Amino acid sequence: MYFDIKKLLNLILCIILVILLSSCSYINTQKNPNVISKSSFALSTVITIKLYGDYDASLIDQCFDLCSEYELIFSRTNSNSELYKLNLMRSMKVSDELLELLKIGLYYSELSEGAFDITIGKVTSMWDFSSETPYLPDEALLNDAVSHVSYKNISIEGNTVTLLDSETAIDLGAVAKGYIADKIKDFLLSNGVEHAVIDLGGNILCIGGKTQENAFTIGLQYPFKDTQASITAISIDDMSVVTSGIYERYFEIDNKLYHHIIDPSTGYPFQNNLVAVTIISEKSVMGDALSTVSFALGLDKSLAMINDMENVFAIFITDDLRLHFSDGVQEKFNISQ
Ligand code: AMP
Ligand code: MG
Fold first, then answer.
1. What is the pLDDT of residue 3?
2. Which residues contact 201 (CB under 8 A, 6 or more apart)?
3. Dihedral of the alpha carbons of 68, 264, 151, 294, in degrees to the nearest 10
């Protein structure tokens, strides 16, 4: 009798474990035996990695571990992260990775003359886009927070980073996923992977094409519809596709939509005619930065900026749901609109 109860308990334990594991990751090898796909929840989003070929599935778990490691460097909200400590300590010696991403963030803050600004942390911490009961930040507090936003308040000497203003806080949310995707790609390449898709909550980076002959087809989400509905699709090989869209994180109060890309000069979400900007580039950190930068600068300025850049492309969706393309996108990525 005792033995049976033990067996039963073991069985129940196994069932719970399987349910737990399948809720945080799944392997999909049924549709196509040559595709290994796993998903997990990290970086506050669902991440999926698909390897096209006969690869070791545990490589994907190692990618998830990498995500967790980088989250512990770049998270603004996790009190164990390195960035959290920097925001608290005001001056400290940081890791090479944090230094590298800070410098990238500073570059784009300067490029956009502060429309994109990684010192927006105090402002973004006042907005909660995941609350069940959305609320607007206190206006006076928001106005005060805005006065502490300026990338010029960051000083770097060697690996020592100092925040010159006593209340400036850094938020790397606009660039971290792209940076991490690039690092995951490096890891997979160094392990011999030639065909893969790294999808960090819609921040997509491809390794090669689906096969030697076929590119990947990536759908661009139809704004405010479910994630499977596409407004258009592009064919890409070995490139990154990153979108900044107002439908990604938002709430509505009194029929007004408040989204997560914030104007550093007001503390409120940018109000222009853009719904989304997608950047296609080689490096995902560049795509991640430029999609947010382009949203901040608006359609006309961004089109001119992207058209001046080598091997970087943009697709804009305006609030009339029209698509606008930078030079050469439609031909290069086989877009039929
Ligand atoms: P993304 O989804 O890549 O466009 O980045 C949006 C995230 O970047 C937000 O959730 C904030 O963490 C941060 N952010 C919001 N507004 C700005 C801004 N004007 N400059 C830099 N980062 C921002
Ligand atoms: Mg971004």
1. 39
2. 43, 44, 45, 46, 47, 177
3. 70
The pTM of this model reads 0.91
Task: Give residue 22's Cα distance to chain centre.
Answer: 24
For the cut 50, the answer to whether the pLDDT of residue 49 exceeds it is yes
Instruction: Of 10-14, 18-22, 87-91, 232-236, give the lowest mean pLDDT range.
Output: 18-22
DSSP state letter for 273: S
DSSP string, 131-165: -SS--PPPHHHHHHHHTT--GGGEEEETTEEEESS
Q: How far is the CA of 292 from the centre of ligand 1 (A)?
A: 6
Substitution site in 71, 120, 266 for ligand 1 pocket (most atoms within 8 Å of beta carbon): 120
What are the Cα distances from residue 226, in Å, to 1, 25, 231, 245?
52, 21, 11, 13
Q: How far is the CA of 266 from the centre of ligand 1 (A)?
A: 14
Which of 20-24, 171-175, 318-322 has the least mean pLDDT?
A: 20-24
Rounded to whole angstroms, the Cα distance separating 334 from 174 reads: 28
Phi, then psi, of 162 in degrees rounded to 5? -125, 135
Interatomic CA distance for residues 249 and 196, integer angstroms: 27
Q: What is the Å distance from ligand 1's center to 262 Cα?
A: 7
Of ligand 1's listed atoms, the one at least distance from the Cα of 203 is: 3
